[in-house]
Amino acid sequence: MPRDQRVPFEAVLGTSILFAGLAYPVTAVALDLTSPALIAVARALAGGLIMLPVLRLAGARLPRGARGWAWAALLGAGNITITLIAISEGTRLAGAAVASVLLNSAPFFVAVLARLFLDERLTPLRAAGLVAGFAGIVVVVAGEPGGDGGTGIAEGAVVCLVGAVAWALAGLGMRYLSVREPAFDVWGATTAQFLCGGILLLPYLAATGTDDTDWGSAKLWVSLAFLVVGAQVITYVGFYVALARWTSARVFAWTFLVPAVAVVVEAVQGDLPSGLTLAGMVVVIGGVAMVTHPRAEPR
User: Fold this and answer.
1) pLDDT tens digits for 196-245?
2) How many separate domains does the chain show?
3) What range does the domain containing 233 cover?
């Protein structure tokens, strides 16, 4: 049996989404102790350094040649540099509620762009599932109490949409390379993107500074360790391994589950969700089920 058919892709992608959802409450803890820019740079560069010995264990390697690194720089700018800046700055400007909704619009951009550039058909059932999933996200956010906290909703909305488009385009780039180039190394390409995207984040860090960082806090270091290993390495590698196997719209639809995971984590911590939030989570899960149903696959 071919190696890729033995891998439980549902489990791989599910694990990726789980860690992506856990990243939200952990990031909230870290933001009380340092700057958004330092978190973004640490995730990217430390994640890339951790991946280097993993490549040897996986029998993978970094790209060789200018073409491979050019792709790494381009995709890293999209899914690392722009996306991480959009998450931090979009949340700061528009608030967590607006940012989470707009950043989770990426599956819609993927569905349209994959049809145009990768010739991936979007069946009516899958389209309905995408709409249901996004509607569920809106309901989840609407059901969460508390103020938005944003200081510039219009500007933040633009930043979040730019981040969603950048994430969508980078994901499509990885999908394109995975299906069009048989020798494409997902592990090596992901590591190269971490390194390139992290380097491109350094001007952002220099511009914002680290004066408010509590370097002596153990809580900060534990939070950063989880964000690097869990939110960065496990999330991205799992997502891209799944993207190499499944169609773009099907994989990206799973990102609708990320806010639901964050809500569950808050519930475990004692912050129980409202009835409206629970209803939204049910809609989200139903939408993802529609997208991934065998009948949603193009024939």
Assistant:
1) 999 999 999 999 888 889 999 999 999 999 999 999 999 999 999 999 88
2) 1
3) 3-296
